[in-house]
Amino acid sequence: MNETSANSQSSRMRSERDRFVAMSFCWADVLIELDENEKVVFAVGPTGPLVGKSSDKLIGATLDSFIDPADLSLIRGLLAIPRKSGRIEDATVRLIGGADGPKPLFFAGYKLEDLGSHYFMAFRDSPSAGKDRRKDSARDSETGLQDPANFAESLKEAVASGEIGEDNQLTLISLPGYENLRERMDADSEQKLLDTLGTYLKANSAGGDMAARIGDGRYGLVHDKSVDVEAVEEQITQFSKEADPTGEGVDVQAASLDVGQEEVSQDDIASGLAYSLRMFQNAEEGQLDLNNLEQTFSTLVSETADRVKDFRRLVGSGDFDVAFHPILNTTTGEIHHYEALVRFKRDGKGVSPYETITFAEEAGLIPEFDLAMATKVVGLLANIPDRFQAAVNISGFSVSNEAYIAGLKALLSKNLWAAERVLFEITESARMADLEGANEFIQVLRKDGYEVCLDDFGAGAASFQYLATLDVDVVKFDGSVIKDAQRVAKGKAFLKALTRFCRELGVETIGEMVDSPEGLEFVRECGVQYVQGFLFGEPNTDILSFSKMDRKVEKLFNKKPTRRAFG
């Protein structure tokens, strides 16, 4: 390089540095410039309390002289990210600190390949305004990454809108053996590992926020194709070794799926990606084959696209039936209401719709179906006697879906009479990412006169959290809870305690899967107020048919059944 060229580059470097300082002045507490050898060539700000050296004493220093040793792998991983823009925003790293020891700081910066690969780094004590992502209820609290439900929805929206496309990939990352690693780590080491993974994956992701924790040891990452996935695997393996007191760590597996494909619509690709993501989330450890998923994704998208079209045609044409199943008072035998259940005409008689509904949930189509089902039930109720009431199911996926909420609001506003005859039952409550938002939706329904039931209660560890956050009128004990309570020695005491807890909250209770007189007597003794099960007949598309079971019910309850309201 001749002297003129050297002076020109030096001048451009100083100009760029000045621009960086000017742009960062209001954001950062400390600014540092590294050369291609990771040596400091410029530093400004109160570095003394953060690294124990004044800014002028940092000149010539290397990374390991001011970055906390525990974060050296992380910072080098961040510096190595081959992103087109070269930018990193709101990562978290620790400097070695002054007298008070290591201090975590938020880090941002960018790399300039045309200026000798210098890296400009900025550090501050707090994140950018509005970006403290750990406080977001739709995020994983331990990593700051998106949670699975929010990530799937974000992915679908970004693909459908064209925000991400043919230049992007979805990479699914698995850490087999993570459970064994967890047993070897203490709580602080695991949290440090999760912090590091969250920081590193966000920095690699498209837009700095398209990454998610899908489960323990499972992650999803949307990135542009310039990201070296093998390098990401190696870096995560290194993080795990550093967190492991034995130094063993875990191997990392990854599969990358192209977001853009020829002759496949963006909408179909979005559904295929969402479906793949949920397959990854729900697969058992021994069933997880990322290599197979990567090889068959094109076929998966094509097959998913066909199923999506078929399902949407079915929903749009209303080509399904509604079967009704009665819910009775455990003491009087009076029918309170009927649960409305779907029956697809293409399925044989008695075939469960579970597989089709599961596909709709995993492909992100369930809000469309929930709205179609609500529309059909309201239409059916409008043409039968007023004494019949029905509960319409709402998936936990739908309670935060804007299109579903708007469509339901429009439907109910046209049928104000429905408040007297329609109830809503929240199913798949574990799918609700934002409980506070879900409660707002529930309270709108209740304010308009609709009773709301929370399904699957007692089946998961989070049931009490749901009941603490969601104000509902009724809970339905999951059938597994009823069956288990009858089978184990302390089951009756457990179920009695649950019903007493609900009663003190002013919440009514329903027990499902009661299929024998003994089961009916059991839930009565436990204080369950309403009951549902095959003992009172199978679901039937003819709601009037249940008048024929009066004699059977009269024998069970020793009186003629009539109907009354909750409470």
Give a written overview of the molecule.
The chain has helices spanning 3-24, 48-51, 55-58, 72-79, 148-161, 178-184, 187-204, 229-243, 266-282, 290-295, 297-317, 354-362, 366-381, 402-414, 435-447, 463-469, 479-487, 491-504, 517-525, 550-557; strands at residues 30-34, 40-44, 87-95, 103-112, 118-124, 168-174, 211-215, 218-224, 253-258, 320-329, 335-344, 390-395, 422-427, 452-457, 474-477, 508-511, 530-531. With 567 residues, the protein is α/β, with parallel strands linked by helices. It has three domains: 3-124, PAS domain (Beta-Lactamase), CATH 3.30.450.20; 133-308, Reverse transcriptase/Diguanylate cyclase domain (Alpha-Beta Plaits, 2-Layer Sandwich); 320-557, TIM Barrel, CATH 3.20.20.450. The strands form three sheets. The protein has an eight-stranded mixed β-barrel, surrounded by five helices. Strands 2-1-5-4-3 form a five-stranded antiparallel sheet, with helices on both faces. Strands 7-8-6-9 form a four-stranded antiparallel sheet, sandwiched between helices. The longest helix has 22 residues, at 3-24. The protein is elongated and about 95 Å long. The termini are far apart.
Features:
567 residues; alpha/beta; Beta-Lactamase; Alpha-Beta Plaits; TIM Barrel; eight-stranded mixed barrel; five-stranded antiparallel β-sheet; 20 helices; 41% helix
Largest sheet: 8 strands, mixed, barrel
Pick out the low-confidence regions.
Answer: 128-135
Mean pLDDT: 82
> What is the structural class?
alpha/beta
Beta-strand portion reads 15-25%
- Any idea what the CATH superfamily of the largest domain is called? EAL domain
Multimer state? single chain
* CATH C-level of the largest domain: Alpha Beta
**What is the CA-CA span between the terminal residues?**
88 Å
CATH architecture of the largest domain: Alpha-Beta Barrel
According to DSSP, the number of beta strands is 17
Shape: elongated
Tally the structural domains. 3
